[in-house]
Amino acid sequence: MSALESMMPPVKRASVNGVEIAHYEAGPREGVPIVLCHGFPELAFSWRHQIKAFGDAGRWVIAPDQRGYGLSSKPGGVADYDLEHLTGDLVGLLDHLGIEKAIFVGHDWGGIVVWQMPLMHPGRVAGVIGLNTPFLPRAPADPIAIMRNRFGPDMYIVWFQNPDEPEAVLGADTAKTMRFFMRKPAGPAAGAGLSSEGGGGSTFAFRDLLRGWDGQTGPEQLLTPDELDVFADAFREGGFFGPVSWYRNFTRNWERSESLPTRIDGLPCLMITAELDAVLSPAMAEPMPAFIGDLETHMVRGSGHWTQQEKPEEVNRLMLDWLDRRFPK
Question: What does the pLDDT look like over 258-289, one tens digit per residue?
Fold first, then answer.
């Protein structure tokens, strides 16, 4: 039996918003549901520890493989992965399950999606939890142009704008790619190691770091071999076009967001930062109180980027405590 089968509830499928979304459910179908939205390069499986804990606590929890990922549909157009589609999938999933409002929890890219939910679909959101990913106000200019100017062409989000090459590099050896990403804060994929050293080097130049990495891991390896297989097999099967295309919509999303609200008010929000996250540092969340009327913030000490997998007990404790206070059963 694979780790996916042994650590996750049975997969369910929903035809929504023109795609099929695979999702996993636990807990009684009562109360305000909690929808867990994963990031890059991840899966609903990233939330395995939270799904069990929330279900055991009597909370209705739902975790989708989002479009382009895992067992869900993988449309072939770049624009199929803009925020209109990504948030629309979540609304469609609520409709499919007969849910009016849910609490949306997002990590990494999933965090960008869930912070957009109250701006784009305010009637469907009961609360928001951001894990590592803060709410960020709309950029003053095209974010890709800003990143290219600040970090150079090799910074991974800028590099992801190129067709085909990112998919080829990431997909050449998915087990190595997943070992490279899924590490605790130690070694070359954490902290300063994410920066290419030398004159004019771009920060977060994953292409060069991955190509130059010998593939060996020590105590910083986050996943068991069985858990690693779930991720490696999923990306070997599904490829990286969809996941990378989420990034290829930064400019489109920015262009289309001009008329959206700039604040979130009247909605309970929780922000959980990770002390050692080199990509989404706790400092990025500091301006959030200026934009969110009802915000509680906590930091998970000693955790890098993959917080719900690195420090699951702490993440579960913080989320369940907040849920019990703000959404008592």
Answer: 999 999 999 999 999 999 999 999 999 999 99
* Cis preceding linkage at 282, omega within 30: no
- For 227-237, write each residue's pLDDT tens digit: 999 999 999 99
Mean pLDDT of the chain: 94
- 180 contacts 186 by C-beta, under 8 angstroms: no
- Please state, in angstroms and rounded to a whole number, the distance separating the CA atoms of residues 178 and 172: 11
Instruction: Reduce the DSSP state of residue 14 to 3 states and report it.
Output: strand
- What tokens were used for 288? 């959030």
Measure the CA–CA gap between 156 and 135, rounded to whole angstroms. 21
Spatial distance between the Cα atoms of 44 and 155, rounded to a whole number of angstroms: 26
Domains and CATH numbers, the chain: 3-326 (3.40.50.1820)
Question: Element (H or E) spanning 273, and its range?
Answer: strand 269-274
Full strand arrangement of the beta sheet holding 102-107:
12-16, 19-26, 61-64, 34-37, 102-107, 125-131, 269-274, 295-300
Taken in order 59, 298, 49, 11, is the CA torsion positive or negative?
positive
Question: Sign of the C-alpha dihedral, residues 276, 129, 23, 168?
Answer: negative
**Catalytic residue annotation:** 108, 305
Q: What is the pTM of this model?
A: 0.96
Distance CA 8, CA 207 (A): 32
Structure tokens at 127: 């609360």
